[in-house]
Structures are given as structure tokens and as C-alpha cells.
């Protein structure tokens, strides 16, 4: 009597050329078979597979999930790729099966067998049904091999090949399995049709290029038809003081002008981060305007000598390379704010923007009446921006803290100084020492900034950051929204990030789209969209928006970092290495650390170890995992203990990541406490699905029922979050 039908992921394996090998060298064939069977049975059991038939040189196995089947196939091929290598081909399909008298039947079995027959040694081939279940998983990269007509299968079927380290993607002409018509005959019969299609496509492409070229021939189109007439970028003013140590002052003047222009409704002003990439690069105004998609450029210079100040400014219409306004100011240092306000008013007048009384009042309000306090503030801000940007030194942050203390002693009502000091304190808490004390003080300083500057966004953002650092995302979001109210669009991406932390991906996307609509030519808006897609493992969408940002600003470090993450996640070694080398051309240790991480995720322990030894972090927790796999357990455990002690003693901020790291260490040590900390991290809002899917730290525990249950829940959460994100588009 037949059993009820059930849906299963079906895997067929076969040793390529086994019969020939047996005839040529029977002893060697037996050794190959033993190695294959040992790897196959151990790996299938570890991934929950049920072996139904074992033919010696091949096997039939079923799984309850496609992910288990594909992970098992990859693991088998990577193990058998190592010496002594065994050339095995694997075919996968999802379909119905049933059992009768102990034997398995069903179309799915037949199809999986046919797909396997197309393979070559090292290949993992699978059907479209299997592809649909794994296509959004960044760990797996599939290549469409085309459609095939199998014997005893009515309709043609699309077949895919898995690519990656230790895997072989066959050429189509190599795929000579159980087909109605050999591939070579099919190719000949379609040759004429294919040639005609190529010729037609070429003609169409030429026509499209000609049309685009004609459209782009006008000056307006060449600079981007989407340019807003009132769009402007403020380039960093040149320091003309003859002392490079005065650079902080000219930079501060520039950034304050950007802030004041951003207060004017009707102006589209490029952010500080957008223009910073052009500082000292020597590009022409026309080229910068083209890359930033703006019509106007403001540039100038600053000379500060004692209490005397000279500022020159000129406004340029970059589409015509024409100066439309220029002014120079010879003033005392105490008049610095009136100079900045005057520049903003002149630009508004040139753009025929009428200023409201409220806007005029905000433009004219000085940050402080004490010029010495202002000087301390600008010095501190230059150091703080360094620290917040890409991990600067703790010594820079401490110097910034001391400078701000002096500024606040001179002017106890200096709102911006309180806000910046609050950000410094929140950042200091991340060292893990006295985190609560730092964060309590950060909140007090932020509230002082709000008290002395209730109409300014800085204090609200600082308070949001303090709460975010403690893990209280609800309160952080409350104050981030207040910051956006104080100055619309100034903190829009930060607000989007907080919504993502709450797993409200629809709201996160809504706020990111709000930023795009406000300034569609700002690369950071597209990078933010890319990271939302990344968190959910939607790699194709991630790449699409990174490409948009990179096209706008190829040299931006944030676009390069996002692209590096994409190539690491999709296991593209060539492109990853190229980008890492470009980004870290002057720092071999940082380059080595990045390459070590790539090989860590590739499970290439020897190569990873060779890079970690000469990197910036030769003894971190990643290096510990490598040591463990290479058999150096004492060193690995010593590194792990150091990392564990640091994280356990520093809980109280960013706990979702600290708990996740602790879970990873315990998992690598096969300590069941990993579940406690993994669940804590998830409960606190941790969600990085592609990282979770690929993380080598969990390899030892992935086959266990406890981990599988967590993985199942993570997958279901991720699918829910995807739906929310797409809702926000």
C-alpha cells in the first residue's frame, strides 16, 4: 500500500567517471568510494537528510527543507574538492514523493535524477523550484544554465548551477545528460535564430545610444535634467592664514554656512558629507557641480589673524561657469556670525527667496557671544567629526571633551557645545568602561542643549543618540522626530535607521524615500536604501542602489564600503579584493584585516590566518575561530576568553551587538549558553539576516534542533520584515 504523498527536497549524487575508474584501477576506485561515502553520510546526517538509496558510487537523499538540501550539497562538494578530490555531481529538485513497498516514487525523483545527469565533477545543479526558495539568500549565487528537455519529462525545464568556492559551473556544451536532444544539436538548430536576434538587438542598442546622445547634447541635459534651479553646494573654504593648524577654523566657517543655508525653505543644500569628499581634490567647479547634480557652487576663503577676520565668498552658476555674486568681509572675529548670516541672506536674495521673520531671526542668531568659546568649539568639532566618522582615536575624543569643557566654562548657555559634548559622552560609553555614567551624563548634557536651544535640532539628536546607545529605541525615535521638526530633513536618515532598529521596515523605507524626494541627487540616500535591503538579504536590490550612489559619486567612501559588504556577502573575491586595495592603498594592515574576514567567511582557515597574523587585529575573536579550526585550540581559547571578558564587562550599551558576539563565541566553543545570548540579541532588535545565514561561528551548532528552531523563527521574521519594507516603497 502506498504511503501519503509528501513534499521533499530531493538530492541525487553521483561519482563522475566511476565505471571507467573501476576498470582502470579497482583499488583506487574503492578508496575513492570509501571517501565519498564517509563524507556523504556524515554531511547528510548533519543537515537532517534521510538517505533512501545508496548505490556505492551514488546516492538518493531527501530533506524537509530546501535550505538543508542546498547547504548539504555545498558542504559535500567543498569537502570533496580538497585532496584526495572526488569528482561528484549533484542534482536537486523540490517535488512530491511517496513510498510503496519500501521504495520511493514520484515525478520529483525522476526530475532530480535527470538534473544530476547534466552535471560535471564539482557541480551542484537544481531546478527552478529549488531556485525560487533560495534566490534571496545572499550566501548562494545561482547561474541560469538555460532550458533543457529531459527524457520522460513533458515540458522543458530551467536548470541552475550554484557558483562559489569549491563549486564548478559547467559550460552548456558539457551538459550531456538524459536529454531528448543533445545540447550540441539544439545549439546548431538555434544558431540562425540566435544570430538574427543578436543582429536585431545590436541595431536597437545603437538606435538607443544615438537617441540618448542627441538628448544629452544640450548643456542643461549634460549637467542632469533633474537639477533644481535653487540647488547649491558649499565647497570647503580655503585656509589662507598661512598656518595649517588654522584649518579647523575655515572648515568650521564652511560647515556653519551650510547649516544656515539649510534653514532656508526653497534651497536645496548639499550636506557636509557630500562636499567633504572634494576637499583638497583639485577638481574644477564645473566637474563638482556635475557630480553633485547642483546648479550653483559657493566657494571662498578664510584668513584669521589674531582678532581680525577676512572672508571672501563667491557664488557660481556652474551650468554657465559664471560668477553671479561675490563679496569680501574684513571684520573683527566677534562679527563672524554676522558674516555667515550675511552670506546666507545674499544667496537667498539671489535666488529670489523671501525670508520669513522666523527664518531671518534664526539666521541672525549667533551660536555664542564669546569668540574664545566659539574657537574652542570649532577645534573640538573638528576632532569629534573625525572620531564619529571612521573610528578615529580615543585620544582625539578626549581632547574634544577637554576643549568643550573650556568652551562651556566661558559660555554656560552654549547649546551646540552641550549637544556635541553629549555626543562625545555617548561615544565614550562604547569603550565599555563606566558606560552607565557616561550615558547618564550624555542625557543631562543633551537636555541642557535643548534648554538653551529649543528651536535647534542638535540637542534633540544628542538625546536620541544617548537613548539609542542604551538600547531604548522608542525614546530615541521620539527625540529624533523632534530634531526633524526643529529642522526638517536634517535628521531624516537617522530617523529611518531608528525605525529599522524597531523592525518597522515600512516606516524606515518611508523616511528614506522622504530623503530621496527632498534631494534625489544625494548619494547617501541611496546607500541608506541599499542597507535596508541588505539587512533582509535582498542582495539584488542592495546592489542596484549602491550602483546608483556609486554612479553619482564614485570616490565616496561610504559607497565603497557598501560595495565591499555586497561583494563579501556574495563571495566575489576578485571585486572585493580590488575595492579593498583601492580603499586601503596606504594601509597594508587594514587591507590584510579586510581580506582575513573574507577568507574567514569562505572557511579558508589557512589563508585567513595568514592575513590575520599581519593585520590590525591579529588576536580578535575572528582570529580565535581560525586558530580553533587549524587545531591550535589553546591559542584560540585564549583569544576567545579575552574577547568574551571584554564583552561581558561592557554590557549596558549597544547590547544587541554585544549579546550577538557573546552568542557567536559560545557557539564556536559548543557552549549551549549561545542560545541565551542569541535570543537576548534578537529580542533587543538585532537583525542582520545575511550575516546570520553566513556566519561561520555557528557552523558547529547549525545541525542541532535548537539552532534550527532559532533559524526557522529568524527566517519567518525576515519574511515578515521584507513584506513591511516593500510596503514602504
Features:
729 residues; alpha/beta; 8-stranded mixed beta sheet; 6-stranded mixed beta sheet; 14 strands
The gyration radius over C-alpha positions equals 31 Å
- Average pLDDT, rounded to a whole number, is 84
CA(first)-CA(last) distance: 52 Å
Question: Poorly predicted ranges (pLDDT <50, ≥5 residues)?
Answer: 184-226, 386-392
* Annotation field: number of helices: 33
Percent range for helical residues? 55-70%
Largest sheet: 8 strands, mixed
The backbone outline, from C-alpha atoms, is elongated
Task: Give a count of the beta strands, DSSP E runs of length 2 or more.
Answer: 14
Strand content: 5-15%
The structural class is alpha/beta
What does this molecule look like?
The protein has 729 residues and is an alpha/beta fold. Helix content is 58%, strand content 13%. It has 33 helices and 14 strands. The strands form two sheets. Strands 1, 2, 3, 4, 5, 6, 7 and 8 form an eight-stranded mixed β-sheet that branches. The protein is elongated. The two termini are 52 Å apart. The relative contact order is 0.05.
